[in-house]
Amino acid sequence: MKWFLVLLLLSTTVGHAQHQKKTVPLIDASVIKVDSLLWDLKALSKSPAVEWLNQTGPVRSLLYKGVDYEGKPTQVFAYYSNPDLIRGKPVGKRTYPGVVLIHGGGGKAFKEWVEKWAADGYAAIAMDLAGKGSDGQRLAQAGPDQGDVDKFSKLEKADLRDMWTFHAVSSAILAHSLLLSFPEVDATKTAVTGISWGGYLTCLVASLDNRFKAAAPVYGCGFYNESDIFKKPIGQLSAGSQRKWMKFFDPSTYLPYAQPQFLFVNGNTDRFYNVVPYHKTYSLIAPARRTMCLIPDMKHGHEAGWVPHEIRYFFESVLNERVPLVQVSPVSVQDSTLRLSYQSPVSVLSAEFYYSNDTTSLNEQRVWSKQKGIVDPKNRTISSTRPKEGFKYGFFYLKDHRNVGVSSTFLIK
């Protein structure tokens, strides 16, 4: 009988950290100076109730309580793992940084994304934002789906708190609160990254949840009414609903109050998140708290969006005080020379200047040219001759000897 009790005790304490939750820090909503804040950040700061679906294997699955939808309770499906679990070990006493992973349009909770970050040393959680489970079927207590109706057109008649963005932001913040409750997660070292629509959500979530120390939105940005793609569904709303959507659901409303360090990752020819609204979005974050990574001809997709290792290097530099990414100054134009200065403990390997005079094509069809940048390691500058034909859009892209890339901001003439 005694041995049975010992085994029972071990089975409830060794298996997983959900039995040993700790106090979760609160979001400081006082710094978000908007006239009508839609989200109850105090409530979202609390760790949600959890139903564990799978407590074995390297990646665990669960349902956690979401916010009510159309007056009814909801649950959100998610995957979770950490460096101990991914190696098949019980959760030990060591703590790890945490990361919240937010999928994009048409996506789901990606198990392999959680595996990647757990293998890289993080406690990682990825949630489904379409009211679905691991099998792709609607949950019994599902929130809104992720189609255009729930994102846009329903706004004409629906309550703001029944819109997809309200629920997606709430679910991501609740996932963070859950992560922070685990004893193996260092509550002072958490980050968030999301892809496409998940990048859009990352801008919102990182602005509202100042418990995060770092954020890496991939592709996604604000100023949706200026997007080559999203200005269309917004434009189909009535004038009043357009104003309401931009006021409550566009990241431009909240980014001025964001507290984390940001890494902005995008391509120069992205179909959904084009140059001008992207430039306006990152400009809302002070230069001292942002790093740019404009990757030439970057493809759009979930896998393409989680591949850049710059995201991990950036998180490591912020959360674990590792070697930072190259820091670059604004580009100056002096006579016929474009020049920027940089700071980096790692030598810069290469640099190029990309530019375009194509002002008539859609963003993904815009034609770009490139020319070599000259790296001066002694003076820590990078320069390139101003193109003879001039340019409307331009940026420097450089890599250090770790093969880690960063860029300047866009130059827009």
Automatic annotation (TrEMBL):
Domain spans labelled Acetyl xylan esterase: 92-219
A GO molecular-function descriptor: hydrolase activity
Keyword Signal: yes
Keywords noted in UniProt: Hydrolase, Signal
InterPro entries, sorted: AB_hydrolase_fold, AXE1_dom, FrsA_esterase
Pfam families with a match to the protein in the record: AXE1
Signal peptide: 1-17
Name the record gives this protein: Alpha/beta fold hydrolase
